[in-house]
Amino acid sequence: MTLIPSLDAHNHLKATMTACSWRSGWRSLLLRAYDDPSTVEEFTTPATADHLLVLVTGGSCEVEARYKGGWNKASHRAGSLGMTAPGQEASLRWRGQTRHQTLQLHLPSATLRSVLEDISGRDASSYAMPSDLSIQDPLITNVMMALADAMANGAPDLYAETAAQFLATHLVVRVAKIEPRTGPKDEPQRLRRVEELMRENLNEELSLNAMAEEAGVSRFHFLRLFKKVYGETPIRWFTRLRMEEAKRRLLQGKQSITDIALACGYNNPAHFTTAFRRVVGTSPQDFRRQY
Description:
The chain is an alpha+beta fold. Helix content is 43%, strand content 21%. The strands form two sheets. It has a six-stranded antiparallel sheet. A four-stranded antiparallel sheet has the order 3-8-5-6, with no helix packed on it. Helix 1 (109-120) packs across helix 3 (157-175) and helix 5 packs across helix 6. The longest helix is centred in the middle third of the chain and has 19 residues, at 157-175.
């Protein structure tokens, strides 16, 4: 079977694309928003190498899908979730009273394969992910909605990379039901090195790979260790360190907001202001005036 790139998948859909994470600079996953017509006759979506998650965010329809066997039916409403496995083409058709909206997330095959091998200790070809027209998974729903919000607000690719790793882990453990093997023991020492790396690179874009390599573990084990020791994800901790540096510079009163944004890794001052308000609870300008 011929696989098409996920970037070309929209050319085979009966929908209008309204947002795309590729345009926002994300490369760790592909997230797109679509406006779908009320009724569509049967068409086929070619297979890609990536795992596809589809979330209905508005409207409704009665949808049918055929993967390898017969047709499966489901009622899709806002919050409905489906997925198509890597290498799997699907035939689709639906009917509804109004247009509906979807988020479609292509989880890279390389990320999924890496997580499978990290968790199981075996070759990824030993496992196959399922396709399902209708699943219930509030965690996936919440992550996809958070990603859409982050995409709109200019979050860095590290946010997308962390989410991709988390989603892949969740799918492997909860959907494929693969039991994780035990990770390394010297956790605090490994993570102290990562925090030092973060503090030394507040004005740079750090990747999840770079942090995991500094810790000397796989990305899967790094995320588990970091959450266990620090109680939050690396991107949130990194953002918190950046905001502490921003507050320090704001209190000095010598630099412009734009210069402080650049020093803290934000090329866009508006994105810096949004992140600062989310973490600190007020804008950089108001923080400087207040203190």
